[in-house]
Amino acid sequence: MSNQVLERPKSLTQKQFHYCPGCHHGIIHRLIAETIDEFGLKEKTIVVQPVGCAVYIYEYFDTDVSEAAHGRAPAVATAIKRVSKDKFVLTYQGDGDLAAIGTAEIVHAALRGENICVFFVNNAIYGMTGGQMAPTTLPSMKTATTPFGRDVKKQGYPIRVSEMLAPFDGVAYVERVMVASPKYVIKAKNAVRKAFKYQLQEKGFSLVEFLSACPTGWGMPPVDAAKWVEENMTKQFPLGVYKEVGLDD
């Protein structure tokens, strides 16, 4: 006789994910949904979704969800949280949505210290639109628009979002994690929990950046893509806590 030790989070619908095999969006969705359940926030949560691979997130989260124009999720989240302070508000964004067209939005939301959680998925490429270079594409990394590799003399260097936002006075918590293997999934879950606590204790702006695989965009098998995250992306984007103001007991 066996005991069930794991079940589908109540904050996720039964809809099957549309993501490519080996994509890490599904893992990240689950971590967030599990945490919503653990804190009993299903009826209070409002997810502000991006434009990008996660544009159909409203089909997966069994919570209230609001669509935002491309890159504008922090502005929409700001309005929702200020009007409905009792709601738990989070944005879920990719590197194109947050770090390209939405750069100004995320910077000013952080500067204002908006009491929201931002979950930022960095896979170093534009996954939905054909694998073009993103603001986070690594130097020498090949993409659809950099077939010979990103040349920093022509295309510049990748943006480090966590390092950029952490020094702002309005920011309470920033951490970069990944989910390429089980031990890192556990650490990522702890980061998600901590971000939730910062909003619940009204400490201000929090962001968790996830390094994520894009096997299709990278042209790799899923296992190789997961290894590539750990062996290459972490050199450009080191894991760790970049800002932590402290939580109440």
From TrEMBL:
The Thiamine pyrophosphate enzyme TPP-binding domain, residue ranges: 66-210
Q: One GO molecular function term?
A: thiamine pyrophosphate binding
Q: Give the highest taxon in the source lineage.
A: Bacteria
Annotated InterPro entries: 2-oxoacid:Fd_oxidoreductase (IPR051457), THDP-binding (IPR029061), TPP_enzyme_TPP-bd (IPR011766)
User: What keywords are annotated for this sequence in UniProt?
Assistant: Oxidoreductase
Q: Could you identify this protein by its name?
A: 2-oxoglutarate oxidoreductase
Q: Please name one Pfam family that this protein belongs to.
A: TPP_enzyme_C
Species of origin reads Thermodesulfobium narugense
* Entry's Gene Ontology BP terms: cellular respiration; small molecule metabolic process
